[in-house]
Every structure is written in structure tokens, then in C-alpha cells.
Write a structure and sequence with these properties.
Distance between the termini: 23 Å
Low-confidence stretches: 296-305
Structural class: alpha/beta
Length: 305
């Protein structure tokens, strides 16, 4: 299968490209720069020049493929609404290009967007209508004759090369001189290793159902106190509690995410697709020590792409 991948040079996208090629698929990767094009070509994938804002490039890339995996998103938390609107337009454009063909389109979403109805967020939960990112709503609009599936990622997708939330927390701990959590720190983050997530993208591409939602969850919920504890121990810093009132000053843009309790399950995904996470969990990955090497946190303010 020839697969058009947006975000092909990113933390998750690059793992997806490798997973697809290893499994015999041909990849067409979206590249917005010469550096990205060179990186994609080096993997053995074909290069498609364009960007999320260039809707014609998305349309032609999708038209040339047997399926599409959409992972790209502009992670600018200071300008989130325009980024969400760019994502919405991109998904609708990809859906239009595949309309009437029954070719698969996998749209990336997140478990943090969900209205959790039980102790764990499940594949059957729906997104919060107030959340500015409208990936799932756009995916529903794209169901006109394309096989559109949702793949929801947890807030922590971890592994070598991570430049998302956890490296940002490590950078912050270095700057502040201690590793902090909010309140009792028992709020939980789900997590998944990037290689397990990449494997699930391939399974959804090959076997996913139209209109279905799938969860890439390795750890259903890791307490934030445990995350802060590993960071403190590895950096030889005190581990301290901050009140909710102190959170904004301490964590800045991370404050909302640090305090959220969002455990999630992938039980239905595992039953439907036979997916089983095999890589180390978040705490075990942190304990390996690579997250605390200086180069690991250079891009800490970024996110999973």
C-alpha cells in the first residue's frame, strides 16, 4: 500500500514511516523544508513537498496514495486556536481527496479531549465540545466515502527523541532547582511508547473500521508524583508539592496539563485489532536515563510531531 504520511519527520511520524516501510508499505512523506525532504528520503520513503497550510499539496498527496495517516499538528500553545483551525481544514481536505474511494484516512486525536464517563477514558467516549482542537469533528465530516478512523494518543508519548511534556518538565526542574507536582500528586497521566503507537497506526491502516476510534495506551495512568519523583532522583533535586494557586507561576503553560487527571484504557482497541504494547512503560523509560542527557531537552517546549 502506498501511504501518504503528514508529520513524517516528527517524533511519532518518523516511527510510523519506519514501521510502514519495515512492513512492506511504500511511504510518501509530507515535507515543508529541504531538511525535512532529505530526512524523509534517507528513510527510503518518497518525498511530497507541501505543508498543512498548503491545502492543494495535501489534496494531491492524498490523491496519489492508497491511504493517509495524518499526524502533523502545529503545536503552538500560545496560538492554539489558529493551529486547531489549520488542522480542521487539513483533515477536511484529506477527506475530500479520498471521498468515494473507501481508502483509509487515520486522523490523530488525543485522550485529553474526551468527556470521560467512567474511571478510565475509553474508545466509546466523545470529545469535549468546548475543546478548541476539532480533529474528531473534522474526521466525522470526512466520512463521506472514505474509511476514516481516529487514533487517540495520550498526553505522554515517550521514547528516545521525545521533545514533549516530559522533557519540558525536566527542563523546568533544572531551571527551578526542584521537581514539583500539584497537591498530593496522585492525578494520573496515561502514556505510550512511540514504537508501540507506530505499530498501532499500521494496524489501524490495515484493519481499522470506518468511524471507529482507537486508543494507543501503554500505561493507563501514571501518577504525576511518580513522574516528578523520577525527575527529582535523576537530577538529584528535592521533590516538592505546589498548591493549585502556585501552579501557574511554577509551571507556566504546563500548569493545566500537570494537574489534570486523565487515565485512559485501550482495552477495546486491543480486542479489535490484537494490538499489545510491548515497549517499556513511562517510568521504566525515564529510569533508563536517556531523558536526562543534555541534548534530550533542547526542544522541550515543543510537542509530539
Amino acid at each position: 500500500m502506498k501511504v501518504f504520511v503528514t508529520g513524517a519527520t516528527g517524533f511519532i511520524g518518523s516511527a510510523i514511516v519506519q514501521e510502514l516501510i519495515k512492513s512492506g508499505h511504500q511511504v510518501l512523506g509530507l515535507a515543508r523544508s529541504d531538511a525535512a525532504a532529505a530526512s524523509i528520503a534517507a528513510t527510503g520513503a518518497d518525498v511530497h513537498r507541501g505543508s498543512l497550510e498548503d491545502l492543494e499539496s495535501l489534496r494531491s498527496g492524498a490523491a496519489a496514495a492508497d491511504g493517509v495517516i495524518h499526524t502533523a499538528f502545529i503545536h503552538d500553545f500560545s496560538n492554539y486556536a489558529p493551529a486547531a483551525e489549520t488542522d480542521r481544514r487539513a483533515i477536511e481536505t484529506l477527506g475530500d481527496a479520498l471521498a468515494g474511494s473507501q481508502r483509509p484516512l487515520i486522523v490523530t486525536s488525543g485522550t485529553l479531549l474526551l468527556q470521560r464517563q467512567g474511571p478510565l477514558a475509553t474508545e466509546e467516549d466523545v470529545p469535549l465540545p468546548s475543546f478548541p482542537r476539532k480533529s474528531e469533528q473534522a474526521a466525522a465530516m470526512a466520512l463521506r466515502g472514505a474509511r476514516v478512523s481516529l487514533l487517540r494518543l495520550p498526553p505522554s508519548v515517550h521514547g528516545d527523541g521525545d521533545h514533549g511534556f516530559v522533557p519540558a518538565l525536566i527542563k523546568l526542574a533544572r531551571e527551578k532547582g526542584d521537581s514539583a507536582y500539584i497537591g498530593d500528586g496522585l492525578n494520573r497521566w496515561p502514556a505510550v511508547h512511540r514504537l508501540d503507537a507506530a505499530h498501532l497506526y499500521r494496524l489501524v491502516l490495515e484493519k481499522g473500521s470506518a468511524g471507529a476510534s482507537y486508543h494507543a495506551i501503554g500505561d493507563e495512568g501514571v501518577s504525576f508524583k511518580d513522574i516528578a519523583g523520577v525527575i527529582g532522583r535523576r537530577l538529584h533535586l528535592a521533590v516538592v508539592s505546589k498548591s493549585p494557586e502556585e501552579a501557574a507561576d511554577r509551571f507556566s503553560w504546563l500548569a493545566h496539563f500537570v494537574g489534570i487527571d486523565s487515565p485512559a484504557s485501550s482495552k477495546l482497541t486491543e480486542e479489535k485489532l490484537g494490538w499489545q504494547p510491548k515497549q517499556p512503560g513511562l517510568i521504566a523509560d525515564l529510569e533508563r536515563g536517556t531523558y536526562f542527557e543534555p541534548e534530550q531537552t533542547i526542544h522541550a517546549a515543543g510537542s509530539h510531531q
